[in-house]
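Human: Cast an eye over this sequence-structure pair and say how the chain folds.
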Amino acid sequence: LRFLLLLDVDMNRAGIIGVRLAALSRPTRSSLSLSCRGYAAAVSLFGKSAGLDVPLTEPLRDIPAPDTASYAKLPAPKLEVTTLKNGVRVASTETYGHVTTLGIYVDSGSRYENARNSGVSHVLEHMAFKSIGARSHFRTVREVEYQGGSTMAAASREQMVYQAEFLRTRLPYFMTLLADTVKNRDFDRTEFAEQMKALEQIVKETESNGQTLILEGLHAEAYRHVGLGMPLVCPGRNLSALTTDDLSDFMQQLYTPQRLVVAAAGVEHAALVDLAEKSLGSIPAPKEVPAKAASQYVGGEWRVHSNESPVTNIAIGFRGVAWADADLPAMCVLHTLMGGGNSFSAGGPGKGMYSRLYQNVLNPYHWVQSCTAFNLFYSDSGLFGIHATSAAADAASLGKVVVDELLRMKGQFNATEVARAKNQTKSAFLMNLESRSIVAEDIGRQLLIYGTRLSPQQLCASIDSVTPAHLQRLAGKILSSLPTLAVYGDTSAVPSYDVFASQLSS
């Protein structure tokens, strides 16, 4: 059976049905039949010497057992950080595995854009790993496939991520590939035109995506279309206005050594530093460091009526906290405590069924289709609030339900729900760190934000220090700011901004 997990016999070999045993599937009569036929076929093809007659409770013959004792002698993984002469920071931690996650993280994003080049970060995400000098996009794709790796790029409001996963012996190739990507300023015009055509379809699909539109609208009104208020999705008006020169100018201004972090999980640090020096050490330091556009939370209303939306979306947000704020751990606990989700959720308490929005909204009001708390952090600001959806006929009632839950945060938090939320926050955080790619990303992003990386022990201790009184004080602080209202769908029954503001101030 152990051998059958790896066996894939098709109809051209031994004339039988292809066999793939799913490790997590429940055995049925048909699957057991396939297993028996697959077993017989494997024995006829390879004989019992292949180890098919060995019970799962015994080790396979002639295969040495792994030397687990040697792992105990390895030093505990630790973060190592080196700053190159030109200012590029290189950070890594060892995992002692066969696979490496490597990323280059850039202090760049849509908050650095303006009305003329708005959307350039979104376009850069789609232009990543395209033709670079003599290396065509086709060649890059085939080489990455041949190396057994994968690549991705993602743009956000404050950071740009270029990341790859691969076997650790392939580090030199992928370090060069990522470095060439962030250094490239000469974009192929044909590929650029192709990506802009693809973006037209993406933007068109976004225009009917209520959740995306609500988030974009919240940011736009909360920050008055400046800095964090700039759209993350390329505006339709700029699809035909942006050029490759806009991309090059934006990168020239922001993709500078002091704004770059090379982070990896599952690599030898000395080898990574050596390769980073060869690939990125020649980037000249800029004469001037561009100023970050100020993002002052203001509040306001964004409302778009659409008869095509199947539901009405209502989101009410408030000024949250920044990454470096002392209230950040408490904000994370409050977010978990409020929780929420869709009207149908497969799962029990681990899925958030004990959160306030489930108990007070989704369970008693069957007509609420979704109700979820959101919590967004940035370097100098943040957004916290509730996003809910319902049929248009229930939109007025939905607004009142959301307001009631926000006002309920001013009341007492009992010790039981706070303890549960703290445990859920810690478990979610620690389980995420079991992923190698998230570890690498966590290193890169924390270095960009804090200049160092807080250990899991430090973060868990800060979560443990949160008290019910702390959450009550924080909730009062949040609700003291002016609200930001975002509505999308059939908005005819949704009260005005002034009505919401008056109810929330009572």
